[in-house]
Automatic annotation (TrEMBL):
Occurrences of domain PilZ (ranges): 11-115
Taxonomic placement: Bacteria, Pseudomonadati, Pseudomonadota, Betaproteobacteria, Burkholderiales
Protein name (Swiss-Prot/TrEMBL): PilZ domain
GO MF term set: cyclic-di-GMP binding
InterPro entries recorded: PilZ_domain (IPR009875)
């Protein structure tokens, strides 16, 4: 089950709280599984059990339920290239890793817009 709410802040792109399972596939093919924290058109924050090096290119994969109140909810699958921009230890709960989306194709952009609508 996914949950999503809007947060207001001074960023250039709207961020939404998003809780869903996320797969992070590194360049060498290793797969880490985490939980998303929030998302925008330009990136996503993910909680992982271990740190993730800054800047390595990776692939982010997740599926989440759109929460558009004007239409019925729909399961949205997203696969996008990304780059890790920070990794912060959060107490004993793991590492909050910020990923910036990179080279977003039209299909992924359309899916992100549906999630953020």
């Amino acid at each position: 089950m996914t949950t999503m709410t809007i947060t207001k802040e001074g960023r250039s792109h709207l961020r939404r709280i998003l809780h869903c399972k996320v797969k992070v596939i590194s360049k060498n093919g290793s797969v880490l599984v985490g939980r998303s924290i929030d998302i925008s058109l330009t990136g996503i924050s993910v909680m992982l059990d271990e740190p993730f090096d800054h800047a390595p290119q990776c692939i982010i994969m997740f599926e989440a339920l759109s929460a558009n109140q004007l239409t019925s909810s729909k399961l949205i699958n997203v696969t996008v290239n990304a780059e890790a921009v920070y990794s912060i230890c959060v107490g004993t709960t793991g590492f909050r890793v910020g990923f910036k989306f990179d080279r977003i194709n039209e299909e992924a952009l359309k899916s992100l817009r549906l999630l953020l609508a």
